Amino acid sequence: MTDSLITIDGDRLWRSLMELAEIGAYDDARTGLRGVNRLALTDADAEGRRLVLGWFRQAGMSVRIDPMGNLIARRDGTDPGAAPVMTGSHLDSVATAGAFDGCLGVLGGLEVVRTLTERGISTRRPIEVVVFTEEEGVRFGTDMLGSAVAAGRIAIKDAHDLIDRDGLSVGAELRRTGFAGDGPARFDPPHAYVECHIEQGPVLAEAGLTVGVVTGVQAISWQEITISGRAAHAGTTPTELRADAGLAAAQIIVALRKMVDSGSYGQLRATVGHLAVHPDLTNIVPARAQLTVDLRNPDDEQMARAEADLAGYLAGLEGSQPGLGLSTRRMARTSHVPFDHGIQKAIATAADDHGLAHLSLLSGAGHDAQEMAAICPTAMIFVRGEYDGISHNPREYSTPQACARGIDVLATTLVRLAGE
Amino acid sequence: MTDSLITIDGDRLWRSLMELAEIGAYDDARTGLRGVNRLALTDADAEGRRLVLGWFRQAGMSVRIDPMGNLIARRDGTDPGAAPVMTGSHLDSVATAGAFDGCLGVLGGLEVVRTLTERGISTRRPIEVVVFTEEEGVRFGTDMLGSAVAAGRIAIKDAHDLIDRDGLSVGAELRRTGFAGDGPARFDPPHAYVECHIEQGPVLAEAGLTVGVVTGVQAISWQEITISGRAAHAGTTPTELRADAGLAAAQIIVALRKMVDSGSYGQLRATVGHLAVHPDLTNIVPARAQLTVDLRNPDDEQMARAEADLAGYLAGLEGSQPGLGLSTRRMARTSHVPFDHGIQKAIATAADDHGLAHLSLLSGAGHDAQEMAAICPTAMIFVRGEYDGISHNPREYSTPQACARGIDVLATTLVRLAGE
Q: Does A163 contact chain B (CB < 8 Å)?
């Protein structure tokens, strides 16, 4: 097996990462760093996609664009009928991102192909590198959107109809940016899917390791809560006559943190990332408030209990101020997704053969791999992040060495899965 | 004294109120009612001012526009050298307003002049009706701005330099709307100032009364709190490593309500009307939050203690999450303003003479009268509001009868103060 050990060109990989990071770059006032803002299907995202699409073609790959705008770049194998081994990730980012989230997986896949081609290494199965559309879900409200359509969980029409805060639809933005492709929206099941991604957490750094084998993705629950109260004058309306939507929103946020701190829900994480009040004026009691609740839990049962207890809390809160109304809308819900043991083993063996100590860990974030797991054997490689693994932040950073070692493991795993 | 009893034309007053309310009107989705949105120095506010300015001139009044954009409409008296008796209020509104707040005081003053002129009643002192600029303070952040400049508390240059959220300045918006006047920015002290305003509270309705004599204005404290945390991924960042600015904002809101409910600060009212987080995305821990705190208290000592205890709470909160930073900016601060006993007595006597039972009460809201109180004997008349006196809301409503009775009392008070 050690014959097929592949060592990629870490400098070339790093240069590609840094060149891509210039697209959508901005000067982040808070950190003093250069950040990345490439929300899905914006002009910046389209520019990034065109750059990478050109690189795929320069590497001799054929590229298909599907109706969801997913880019599928293919390096043929020696057996024309064999199902491909697939890798990839996404190029879209949150509004305050770094250079690595998603991009490492895509450019890592590209680097594997560049390395194989310059060394004249052929494989029996094709190797495909995929760029999934709107993985982050921050623009159109549903994360892993492109891979969910490819894996058949979400219908292409429903995906096209999703709109952003300005009312622009996925379908219209795909057409506007030139990425409304054709052919089937669902993938033929590949032989396997292996994705390399930065950890976005502190586990590998704390353990002093560079790479990890991902055993699965924790359960994720997103909901939007809308609260209606009554606008009233701040100076004259007695406290007991108020229906203060902003206060209710604040109480939910504080209650969520208490749930986390109680330890009663295992490794529950809770985040309120979106919060807005209306009319949003100093001397008016908020008539409306809207917030999102992002819950994560590695345990499906604990997650279900946390959701039920939150729903119970909301019902009680509704009665706490006369005139208060609450409604919730489910935005996303995925259960714990366990990854394939065989693929995990292949990754672990490749890491061993490269002389890299590693550990197995669960992913805290959602990834396209969890969608692909529904249609083929799937697992992921995590690469260590610095600064407690901070991500979705311009401080996000993985060293050139860590990135190269992660893609070494990816390359060796892909080549072995693709066969001679 | 009953000789000088003046009864105004309530129908004409009502028609003027309703006509003005069409300017800046909008259909309020929440209440199903017609609301008013005339933020200071917007196009709608300018249109409202031009309408009322025309009415002043039709009533035979001369109109001066001062450098702050305050409109001063004058009906001459028989003694050219006598200081005027002044009344008035404001025409600007909050974004979700009704038809009465401020407008009743301005159009009531106009109605008094119309009535005096059609009855051929002259007074020794001039009667002036003033429209103050930006009373609400919601656009440029400082309430009672026009009257504060007229009374000398705020320098005209500082007022002109205030900017709204889009960076537009008071000075530029005065010029754009055609209301950058000339002459002195500070008023020569009038003989007296009497303002009629809706109560914006439930006291008169609960007592079954139509009018009240206002004894003063409670202390008001506005501050803006900015919280800096750290953007981080919702799924991967351990709770103990987070610096969640949104959570801190929520904790402040909940703590303020606890302070109010404790009863330890007398009749403290606390409102967080403005609340925003950044980057405001579902799966990112907020890196920044901003909120405003509006405190009211009829007692200066209790108010000072509430402010000090809030500051202590904020200092403690800053240490509760590593990496959290808090800063505060004072937006407005006024002490309890007691009104002149002689003017209160004149109002009470006029109400008695009109056969109107009344009570004395403190104002919960700030009013231009509290600024004028610094330069001349001042007091206010309150008119009952329906629906618990709800205000800053399209449901704000006072009956035609209540408005007419309040302006009867104003007319009689003004004429007696102006003398024969």
A: no
